[in-house]
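User: Show me a protein chain along with its predicted structure.
Assistant: Here is one chain, sequence first, then structure tokens.
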Amino acid sequence: MSARRDRFLDIVQTLTRHGLGFALAYVQLEHHVPRNPLARHPAPPDGESSLPERVRLALEDLGAVYVKLGQIVSTRPDLLPPAYAAELAKLQDASTPVAVEDLRAVVRDELGAAAGPLLGSMAESPLATGSIGQAHLARLGGVDVVVKVRRPGVVEQINLDLEVLAELAKRAERASSAVAAFGVASLVEEFSDTLRAELDYLREARNAERFAENFADVPGIHVPRVLWEATTSRVLVLERIRGIKINDAAALHAAGMDPAELASRACEALLKMVFEDGFFHADPHPGNFFVEAGGSLGVIDFGMVGRIDEEFRAQLVRALVAVVERDERRLAASLARMCGASASADLEELERSLGRMLARYVGRPLSEVPLAPAILEVVGLLRRDRLRLPRDAALLVKMLVMADGLGKQVNPEFELTEALAPFTRRLVLESYSPAAIAERVKRLTLEGLRLGSDAPDLIRRLSDVLERGGFDVHLRAAELDRLMDRVERTGNRIVVGVVTAALITAVGELVGAQPRQWRHWPRALFRAGIGGVGALGGYLAWTARRGR
């Protein structure tokens, strides 16, 4: 308890020292502020530092957890205004290096007798120093490696700071309804999970191995091998990647490398991670990409990753189709669902803003659409309407913006939209394919049989499926919400009849719209289980006999 109290006082002193004492009212610590009016005022005495600058300086003084928090939040344009995001992006780990002997002691504790070869070859000077770990060059089993060792005592310090941060978030939500509406406590919990995951080097090793498996058949991409015999939760040993940093233009030209080809290859690898693997590198800054002597692209640093599940892919497809069709209403609904908003949320202002944005790009070829600014504009609109992207969606936004920046650093003529086009086209076509739609209808049919009295929700889900398949469904989510009570009272026989009719109509429209793809539709439907439509008819007869 004494350690927590001391940390609270340290936070108070740090904020007041940087002219941020006024913020303590939001965490109910204002009674600790010194009786100095300048300490409470938003502007420091010299008047030179901006508020975002002072926030950055305060976070640096508060140490590793707060630096990490600032770094992560700076990548969330849906949470912060641009001025704060730009300033916090300057945060760097300024950790004092740990003596190599202290790190060797950690390696010895973790590996026991097997530590000998590694200990004897560890370089004295660190290759990189961070708030969580420190990296040194070494050699193991005839392989040049990089060994990352977790700093002694860092777990205890991080856990203390995370406990304090969680308490501050709860206080802030109690003190401000605006803060509570934004879900600051849940954001801190999400951040805590992310940071604690970084403490476990086994997780990072598994990430590296999964990337290696995903790119095993992709020429020109090199993911370092994990040396599992020397890897634990506190020690990570990876094959060393040698090469030219991907943004070192002079060295690349001297080596006869083509920057345009490298930019395309790096970004295509990142897009493959998203659209094909559903598992992506979430920190693709230039320092994590090296061009090897043979021209292969080496990728490092697998501590921060994102995942894309099928539900998010479906929402992404709907958003992409809405952009192509310039349908701001559908786009607003898809974005709101990504953010977890209810179907009855008021989206009129968001729809109008998206409509104005889409109008600016009418008639322009894809290569002329500035992707990163467009993405940042959209997340700015979400922030205005207090819609918060889930972690992995926010990481995807960050990754796409960073990928665009990476490509332009290597090749000023690079446009991510050109690299993105084949992946998005394939994703949309897969969603439109007869097999994909048949599979979704099959699942809905079976779900309808299980739902029984909950069948009204099936209509909502069927509407979603038909929209994803590109059909014009006029009963939108908000309208369905208002009709649910009446549908429930009408009875399940009508519900099942409507669902059956909708399924038959959908299949008819599919056959008419895509006759070549559906030449063998009876066999395809049978294989996919769409014969469940008949089962629905049986269910209708059964419910009728029961007098429902």
